[in-house]
Amino acid sequence: MKVLITGGAGFIGSAACRYLINTTKDEVLNIDKLTYAASGTALRCIEDHDSYSFLKGDIANQELIGKAINRFRPDTIMHFAAESHVDRSISSATPFVDTNIVGTYSLLEAALEYWRELGSHAASKFRFIHVSTDEVYGSLGPSGLFHEETAYDPRSPYSASKAAADHLVSAWHHTYGLPTIISNCSNNYGPFHFPEKLIPLTIINGLLGRKLPVYGDGQNVRDWLYVEDHVRALRLIAEHGTPGQKYNIGGRNERTNLHVVGRICGLLDELSPSAEGRSRQEQICYVADRPGHDRRYAIDASKLENELGWRANETFETGLRKTVQWYIDRRDWWEPLQEKYSGQRLGVLVQPQQAES
């Protein structure tokens, strides 16, 4: 395939670029705006490959994107580009609306114009894969799973912007016939994950001897998916998925946030003991909960498993061990990022009386 990837310098997008270049014969064009969370280092191992090329650009620039699509002539577009951190969306929703909604609209328009001009055979093979999140479904109770038919109920500016993007993608299929597919994934983790998210933040803070903040009571549940399992699923969906369909991608690894933090502490104590011989468990502290913090997410990936034959290769234990070891070994990657983000809390709402004082 010729695959155009948006947001390919981000965490999941860069994993997709590496996977496609290193394990398939696909040709990849990566278009990325290079925001704060982008990582050129994550692409260094493939940047000189004959089948890989990069273009700096904003997906909201429809003219630029249209020219890039027509020049590259992709068989598939994998749309990863998004603002993704819930805390930042609480502090300022504007970038999330601009990229996740307006950017997706612009990309859809450019893709539709390109697709309409393809010959019948190429048009029938073309796919637009929109990479979304399980957060669009809202919050689960203590039981049950998110299915592809679960009604949307987003609770944060981030999840609302992704839900809006999903609806646009679906509308462009039903109204214009564009062969789109939506994937909704659970929480990803793995190498090159920007250290504002729970797992990399906890690992890095643990290594630096800092406090390990846990929101609320720590009992919020997430389903964890190793990033390389995710991008394998997306390649499978691109080749064998049905246009107009949705596919949920989850690792069947439900864990409370407190369990995740505790397990990271145990792995750090084993793989990189502190100089003082203290357990990282002593660094755990509880902080005020995030506004609108969803209680539980859990994905039912049966459709993807049964129809396309996908299975996650990593359990939570094997994937987390690999991830912790990677951050131990790659201080050269995350230490420079401390200038961009040193673990400060984001998304805290200021009460009116506090603002006045």
Features:
about 350 residues; alpha/beta; Rossmann fold; about 40% helix
Question: Can you describe what's shown?
Answer:
The protein is of the alpha/beta class. It is built from 13 helices and 12 strands. The chain has a domain at 2-194 and 224-249: 3-Layer(aba) Sandwich (Rossmann fold). The chain has a 7-stranded parallel sheet, sandwiched between helices. The termini are far apart.
Low-confidence stretches: 350-357
Roughly what is the average pLDDT, rounded to an integer? Answer: 94
CATH level-3 fold name of the domain at 2-194 and 224-249? Rossmann fold
Q: Write out the CATH superfamily name of the domain at 2-194 and 224-249.
A: NAD(P)-binding Rossmann-like Domain
Indicate the percent of residues in helices.
40-55%
CATH class wording of the domain at 2-194 and 224-249: Alpha Beta
* Percentage of β-strand residues: 15-25%
- Class inferred from helices and paired strands: alpha/beta
Alpha plus pi helix count: 13
What's the architecture of the domain at 2-194 and 224-249 in CATH terms?
Answer: 3-Layer(aba) Sandwich
What is the CA–CA distance across the termini?
Answer: 59 Å
